[in-house]
Amino acid sequence: MSLGLSAEAHDEYLKYMKSGKKEKEGLEVLDALLEDPNILTVGEVPLGLVQIPLDQIAGTKTSARSASFSKSFYPLLPEKSEFAQKWMNLYCAHIEEGIREPIKAYEFMNRFYVEEGNKRVSVLKCVGAVTVDGMVTRILPARTRKKEVRIYYEFVDFYRLARINDLNFSEEGSFARLQRLVGKRPDEKWTEDERKDFQALHWRFKKIYEERKEISSTGTEDDALLTLLSVYDYPELLNMSILELKEKMLKSREELKLTEGSTPELHMSPEDTAGKKRLLPNLRIPVSTSRMKAAFIHEKTVKTSAWTYAHELGRLHLQRAFDEEIHTSCYDGATEENIEALIEKSIEEGNNLIFTTSPPLLKGSLKMAIEHPEVKILNCSLNTSHKYIRTYYARMYEAKFLMGAIAGAMTENDKIGYLADYPIYGMTANINAFALGAKMVNPRAKVYLEWTKLKNHDPFETFRRESISYISGQDMITPKAASRYFGLYRYDSSDTINLAMPVWHWGKFYEQMIQRVMKGSWQEDEISDKTRGLNYWWGMSAGVIEVICSKHLPIGTARLIDLLKNTISSGNFNPFEGVLYSQKGIVHRDSTTELSPEEIITMDWLAENVIGRIPKMEDLIDQAKPVVAMQGIGGTV
Question: Of 393 and 259, which is predicted with more confidence?
Fold first, then answer.
């Protein structure tokens, strides 16, 4: 060993000892931590040789060596001590050959505590190393309802597949979401190459994140990484240079401030401006001297999709209402693969307001909104929180409550059928509102729930077996495949009678949204809360939702529905008000209050008079899985 290297080791020791003495806190001691009676453990699991991130080493296993180091593992003992000499010798050995002998450590709640090799950790931390090899034993905490424990056990499941331990998420479900975003099946293990590719991307992301102060998240930096992966495709990010990745992160910086699970700010009516007062309430701000151009991009065509048909009727309504001020155009056949190209084409053709009309188009719409901040882009989906794009939906549960009341009044054997398609946000509210409406007029009414997107399943089999004649089917018909099986209908072998149908009056929504843009309300809707996006969720009061009753409805029932419709529209009645019971018991105890809009959107329970269940992802046909992966409720995903 050269004298020069020994002198360098001595100087380094003094430097880090000085830094250590400035730190007021010392190392954590695992043994002391586990003496806390509130911390329960259930056993140990040997993990073998593990690459330990040095920034996740929190302390020592025992108190024997804890006083020798500061909180950052800087040495604290005098320079002439035997400890100091060994530290300096180890420093020289690392500079000449590198430290290769694994340490011995314990892991608890994804933090590591050294049993053997404290000086090795100290030297490696001081020289700026990132990881150290170690023989690790995991100590498992007792399962509790605490959020951090639930997240930890999600990590344990993920580690079994990926053997990656340097991820820190603040929200439940994040590890499973990461597994999906990198293209892996829920139970699929990672290869060594896949692990190295991800860790290289993770390193580049962390380097940029730490360097650029304008990129910050309300959660952890890995929450921000997860957000970036939800905007850009994983293979695309893998192939980016650090400069390209930095450009994408800077463009997306407002999006990266959001955390997974953050709820959007909801505007419940056209008059709702998030509690803000207009400075000039009567001022009309002209958009421009030329006609506004608005594009509507549909996933399917009007001939094959009732959903697209409804939105296209809305576009035509808008065109008639603002014929002198707006030019509209539509693009159909959009997919997750071509949506970006279609949006780019619509922008090239002069459109500065774009509506993408179904949830699967959200990700591509968001990417293009980031790339084109000069264009207003809205996506028709619910409970998605994004900063560069706004979303919109309608409170269909209000109409479903009325439909349920009709069904409850009309059923002859207290049994009603209900057909649902995707188990996504808002769908459970529709089902439960229908069931509550039926129960309000008929306490004995039971709603038999069937799903149309299940594998190898005939949803009508239950209806036939239970002699169910009154069925709530799809909301409206598709022109190409017209039938009588829509809305609420009575079915028997000889005839089908339609009783009522709910209507998505998207024309009313688009008309009022355009008025908001023209009046300057778009800018007023901007919210200062960096952790939330904005969702327009309008209902009967805005004319966006309606129920049309047929002549077959008894006059008394029709009058009851008109009364309920008026009370809901005026805000004097909410179907989810008062004491509410699920299949498993009471879910809302206060008879004087109602569920919040967020609780209604995300409800993952079924009303007590519903016979059926919410399906799991593996129960669904393949075509349904992308929609549910993006918008699925509760345990579906």
Answer: 393
Of 125, 142, 159, which residue sits at a domain end?
A: 142
Determine the Cα–Cα distance for residues 371 and 377; give it in Å rounded to an integer.
11
In the chain, what is the straight-line distance between the N-terminal and C-terminal CA atoms, in Å?
59
**What is d(CA 364, CA 390) in angstroms, rounded to the nearest whole number?**
13
- Residues 379 and 414 reside in one and the same domain: no
Q: What is the pLDDT of residues 561-593, one digit of tens each?
A: 999 999 999 999 999 999 999 999 999 999 899
Closest to 90 measured CA to CA, from 190, 9, 185: 9
Residue 181 sits in the same domain as residue 138: no
CATH number at residue 488: 3.40.50.2300
Domain boundaries, position 345: 265-393+508-526
CA angle 45, 47, 51 (to 5 degrees): 145
Has residue 276 got a pLDDT over 70?
no
> 328's torsion region: left (phi>0), alpha (psi -120 to 50) or beta?
beta
In tens, the pLDDT along 349-393 reads 999 999 999 999 999 999 999 999 999 999 999 888 888 999 999
Number of folded domains in the chain?
Answer: 4
Structural contact between residues 438 and 609, judged by C-beta atoms closer than 8 angstroms: yes
Q: How many angstroms separate the CA atoms of 400 and 84, rounded?
A: 75
The pLDDT tens digits of the residues spanning 215-247 come to: 777 788 999 999 999 899 999 999 999 999 999
- Separation between Cα atoms, residue 616 and residue 635, nearest integer Å: 7
Same domain, 242 and 274: no
Residue 535 falls within a domain, yes or no?
A: no
